Amino acid sequence: MIKSEKEYTAIVERIEELLSVPENIANPEAKGYVELNLLSDLVADYEEKHHPIQPPTLAEAIKL
Question: What is the pTM for the complete model shown?
């Protein structure tokens, strides 16, 4: 569980580092694969609670 914005920022930076190694993304045998998936889940949960994305208004949806 991420407890602060500072912790969130540090984890996002770590995710970016892990994503810079292509094998971490699709290879379950890669050293960073599990860490990347766990951290991504933590960030997703934190963002859902603290930075929710609002659904578009009808006007915004029509523009798309």
Answer: 0.79
pLDDT tens across 31-60, in order?
Answer: 999 999 999 999 999 999 998 988 889 998
Max CA-CA distance within the chain?
Answer: 46
Name the residue ranges covered by the structural domains of the chain: 5-63
Q: 33-50 and 5-19 are packed helices; what angle lies between their axes, rounded to 10 degrees?
A: 140
**Rounded CA gap, 64 and 56, in Å?**
10
Q: 43 with 12: CB under 8 angstroms? A: yes
